[in-house]
């Protein structure tokens, strides 16, 4: 079997043979309410979690001019602060001043106004019907995120040529299938045989940006930044449930697409995972777990699928790290994640001599603003915006 | 509303001009905008929407029509790296429009979801010269005698005459000028989609409705000839065929049949590509049609982009 996959002529053929045999497998949901899901997910994907953001090279950090405009809701005539910058296009980003002269300074005011404009449009100006039951996230945060990212990315494309060649997907599908660990088949006609434990992630990010060139590696391929948690229980204790269906590997678009590397994903947390619910059940520490597990699982699936699109798989491990970023948000609180895939060799035989680990950097969730009131956004947090801009400006060194 | 374009013309007191107005044509012809390089990206956009977007073999129209639109808009939006004033635009989805007017003692109203609306902070300057506007005085509107022009229109008892730019946006909304309306006919079943003629009529009625509501907001409810005509554009597509329309509202005096008329420029039935082959067609072991997009027409995308850039560059 392995020979056949190695010898397959095209990537599509490899993927087809890789996922040909269908057996019951665990469906891993990136957005889950399971307690301490991020520890389990780290053990499934052999990921080390490093809090905080990865160190960036100095070149990538754009100098930020002292924001001239006052941090107010973006409404009203914006002062003509020409911001070169970062258009954080929050949905309502209203006044995005054209960056005149392409000064190397990012105009926070402009970006801020862009973000606030987007926010105000979706929450205040546009008259919408009442949100559907338990689907609050589609009413305001969803459109806000779409507007914000699209306008911001468009404005920043002047500074980041990778964005200018990017492809924006709305509501794409990302799937990945892999084996990890072993178990004995309990019942059925195959009882007693030793089988690999199969997992499948089916993810639906709200928005994703795909680019034709790969993001640079953050740390070298063989680095060891921590420990991967080892969990002795069966995955079904998480709870995870088994199902048998098509083994899909998909990054959001087929192999023929030139934009085959991932840049940034944006995830929207659904209403049933909102913070108030966790606080009500006295599980405040699980709030961050939700963001982390979403980041780890989604990014692992995306980077691993990208690697498979390049022809790597668990028997032919990656020769270069695959890096992607993600932003997980519920509309107000933003958490940022950066993932580096160093190894795909996760099944029982290949993991024995494999010292490499995947690495995920992540922050805690921080609010972008305090409240939207009377057409004003109060308590706007520039740092969150700045982090988002840095994410969007990330590009390979030669560009 | 299922009227044809001619009927819509009578209802909105509009004169039809074939092709796109000179201002838009100017954007098309000017090489400074770098429209050539975008051809490749536009072709990728079409391939992505029609071929690559799904893990199944071929995406359905309900999926590929909006995806194609989003891809094209993404390419247009990326131009704001070059023309930063383009970022003073905002897309609003699912907004409702309502406008009322009287035509020869018949009260007409346009209501409903007007698709996707792009608003801008600055209005589009008028595309017709003053002479052209005055010349419309001589133009005689086609009548449909003996068919009443309101045929196929729903007669409804309207208790409230509504006039609102989409009733959508509150006061003080900074992006207050409707720029372009986008209509996506993405129903999978052909009978649920509008035929091109009907789509053009729908585009005209909604562009008129938006322009009228904006004019009434700016200049008041009295019918008069507008000093500053209001221009609203409209693009409709079913994922392959595009209809482009630029509508200029010259007058809100719609009761009588004479006087200054409104103008509309229509460029209809522009194919973006001929065929999108998802799986290569093989006859007797020989590939007759390879997979991919065939017959790509870059001009259609250029017109899309030109309409997007219109008013800003």
Automatic annotation (TrEMBL), chain A:
Q: Is RNA-binding given among the entry's keywords?
A: no
A matching Pfam family = PDCD9
A single Gene Ontology CC term: mitochondrial large ribosomal subunit
Key words, A-Z: Mitochondrion, Ribonucleoprotein, Ribosomal protein
Name the segments for region: Disordered: 56-91
**Which cell locations does it reside in?**
Mitochondrion
- Show the ranges annotated as biased composition (Low complexity): 56-90
Provide one Gene Ontology biological process annotation.
Answer: translation
Gene Ontology terms, MF aspect: structural constituent of ribosome
InterPro entries per UniProt: Ribosomal_mL37/mL65 (IPR010793), Ribosomal_mL65 (IPR039982)
Q: What is this protein called?
A: RT30 protein
Organism encoding this protein: Erpornis zantholeuca
Automatic annotation (TrEMBL), chain B:
**Chief localization:** mitochondrion
Which GO MF term does the entry hold, naming one? Answer: structural constituent of ribosome
Q: Which Pfam families match?
A: PDCD9 (PF07147)
- CC per GO annotation: mitochondrion; ribonucleoprotein complex; ribosome
Q: Which InterPro entries is this protein grouped with? A: mtLSU_mL37, Ribosomal_mL37/mL65
Q: What's an example GO BP annotation here?
A: translation
The compartments listed are: Mitochondrion
Keywords, comma-separated and alphabetical: Mitochondrion, Ribonucleoprotein, Ribosomal protein, Transit peptide
At the top level of its lineage, which domain of life is listed? Eukaryota
Q: Which PANTHER family match?
A: LARGE RIBOSOMAL SUBUNIT PROTEIN ML37 (PTHR15889:SF2), MITOCHONDRIAL RIBOSOMAL PROTEIN L37 (PTHR15889)
Family the entry assigns: Belongs to the mitochondrion-specific ribosomal protein mL37 family.
User: Would you tell me the protein name for this molecule?
Assistant: Large ribosomal subunit protein mL37
According to its UniProt entry, this protein's organism is Erpornis zantholeuca
